[in-house]
């Protein structure tokens, strides 16, 4: 996501290549780069994961705490997402620059994990209307190299899988 | 749309795979090179407590009485007569500022630049105004470097150098580019490569007409054929795999690596296991060729 200035000829070359389904590094338009997944990296969390997708590096930590269920869903626990775009990820994230992107990604994550098939929220409930588990999911962008949504969703899934 | 996941593996130390007999004397900053005071200090060393101590991380080179340490990973340090590939960052009054992966931005004076058509005349005021028409921010050029006062001064005096057209740029560390007689190579596989001494490597389709060298100002914007594109992408991936395995880059090594990669698909070359396999094969072929 760091902006690179390219000459006109390079842009034309890249665009023509993509039109023929061949990116500059030989991949097709729908091929992924190499993905590296590692779980249980952060010791003081209930679950964590680190995902490297090309130059993109994401670290996710999950902490489970007790809380009260939401009023409209008394039988379920819930997830809280927080995305931190660190300033070292890319020069554009200096200061307050990364906050907008962080909130956008957090909202997307809420929508993704809001349905029954991804995480069964009923299992997070301890006693209805009184106690439930709240999973605080913290996402940290270490390095920004494109395709953030995919990498973050893989990392969150891996971290939740790793949560005990 | 299948995805492959892998677990991170510890990187194998380089010495296991090298198998070379000559061991280079590698030092890190603070290491003592020698306690013999008869040597002269070169770059990368300093004298402290009657010992010669290294100030950069690299290999020790000794020429008679001169000891210097050549850094392994450094920014480009210009030498007279080098060929570099640079990207224009700024257009200023009588010159362009060029980014060449060195400590300071390099300068390209208007008077050191070819005019379109190859004419020779004094640059007038209109030329200055038309500077932006020649080269804009983001343009890539190939130039010859003249080193002066820390900042590299560039010139493109012959028609071989100048603005580059369509192609792919690969950025590597300058210490991996081997010094050779010529840095413009036409590889038999169908693409040409410019190995800039500053670590910028430009891969482009071989132009059919030999009169129109890489220095023309009007960039050829016609679509490049798919076969040429595949050759260029494969070369790019080969160069990246050679770089990750810290091998020197020159036309023979790139060519061998290209031939070793032919059985694999282009996008597979990016996978770590296949990268190692290809570079191992390249290394063997190069050793056979030398020995």
Describe this structure in words.
The complex is a heterodimer of chains A (164) and B (291). By secondary structure, chain A is α+β, with helices and mostly antiparallel strands. Chain A is built from 3 helices and 6 strands; from the N terminus they run H-E-E-E-E-H-E-E-H. A 5-stranded mixed beta barrel of chain B has the order 9-10-11-13-12. In chain B, helix 4 (226-244) crosses helix 5 and helix 5 (251-261) packs across helix 6 (272-290). The termini of chain B are far apart. Chain B is built from 6 helices and 18 strands. Strand 1 (35-39) of chain A pairs parallel with strand 1 of chain B.
Topology:
The complex is a heterodimer of chains A (164) and B (291).
Chain A: H1 8-19, E1 35-39, E2 47-53, E3 56-67, E4 78-85, H2 97-112, E5 125-127, E6 131-143, H3 148-162
Chain B: E1 5-6, H1 14-18, E2 26-27, E3 32-34, E4 40-41, E5 45-48, E6 51-54, E7 58-63, E8 66-71, E9 82-91, E10 95-99, E11 106-109, H2 125-129, H3 131-134, E12 140-148, E13 151-155, E14 162-163, E15 168-171, E16 184-186, E17 191-195, E18 200-205, H4 226-244, H5 251-261, H6 272-290
Parallel strand pairs in B: 4-8, 11-13
Antiparallel strand pairs in B: 2-7, 3-6, 5-6, 7-8, 9-10, 9-12, 10-11, 12-13, 12-14, 15-18, 16-17, 17-18
Helix pairs in contact in B: 4-5, 5-6
């Amino acid at each position: 996501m760091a902006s690179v200035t390219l000459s006109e000829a390079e842009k034309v070359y890249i665009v023509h290549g993509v039109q023929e389904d061949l990116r500059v590094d030989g991949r097709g338009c729908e091929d992924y780069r190499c993905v590296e997944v590692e779980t249980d990296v952060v010791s003081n969390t209930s679950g964590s994961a680190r995902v490297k997708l090309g130059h993109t590096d994401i670290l996710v930590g999950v902490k489970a705490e007790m809380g009260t269920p939401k009023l409209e869903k008394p039988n379920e626990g819930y997830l809280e997402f927080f995305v931190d775009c660190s300033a070292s990820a890319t020069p554009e994230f200096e200061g307050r620059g990364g906050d907008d992107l962080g909130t956008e990604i957090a909202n997307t994550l809420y929508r993704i994990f809001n349905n029954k098939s991804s995480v069964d929220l009923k299992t997070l409930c301890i006693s209805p209307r009184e106690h439930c588990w709240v999973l605080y999911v913290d996402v940290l962008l270490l390095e920004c190299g494109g395709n953030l949504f995919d990498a973050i969703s893989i990392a969150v899934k891996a971290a939740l899988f790793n949560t005990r | 749309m299948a995805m492959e996941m892998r677990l991170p593996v510890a990187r194998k130390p380089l010495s296991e795979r090298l198998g070379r007999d000559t061991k280079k004397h590698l030092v890190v900053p603070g290491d003592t090179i020698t306690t013999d005071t008869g040597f002269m200090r070169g770059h990368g060393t300093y004298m402290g407590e009657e010992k010669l101590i290294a100030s950069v991380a690299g290999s020790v080179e000794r020429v008679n009485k001169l000891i210097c340490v050549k850094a392994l990973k450094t920014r480009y340090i210009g030498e007279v007569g080098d060929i570099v590939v640079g990207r224009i960052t700024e257009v200023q009054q009588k010159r362009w500022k060029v980014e060449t992966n060195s400590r300071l931005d390099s300068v390209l004076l208007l008077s050191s630049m070819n005019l379109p058509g190859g004419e020779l005349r004094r640059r007038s005021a209109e030329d200055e105004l038309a500077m932006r028409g020649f080269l804009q921010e983001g343009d890539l050029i190939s130039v010859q470097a003249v080193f002066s006062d820390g900042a590299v001064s560039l010139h493109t005096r012959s028609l071989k150098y100048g603005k580059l057209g369509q192609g792919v740029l690969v950025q590597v560390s300058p210490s991996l580019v081997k010094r050779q007689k010529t840095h413009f190579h036409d590889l038999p596989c169908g693409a040409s490569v410019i190995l800039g001494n500053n670590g910028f490597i430009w891969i482009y389709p071989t132009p059919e007409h030999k009169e129109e060298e890489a220095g023309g100002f009007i960039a050829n914007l016609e679509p490049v054929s798919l076969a040429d594109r595949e050759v260029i992408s494969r070369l790019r991936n080969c160069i990246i795999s050679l770089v990750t395995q810290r091998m020197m880059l020159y036309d023979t090594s790139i060519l061998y690596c290209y031939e070793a990669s032919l059985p694999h698909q282009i996008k597979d070359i990016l996978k770590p296991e296949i990268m190692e396999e290809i570079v191992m094969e390249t290394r063997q072929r190069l050793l056979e060729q030398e020995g």
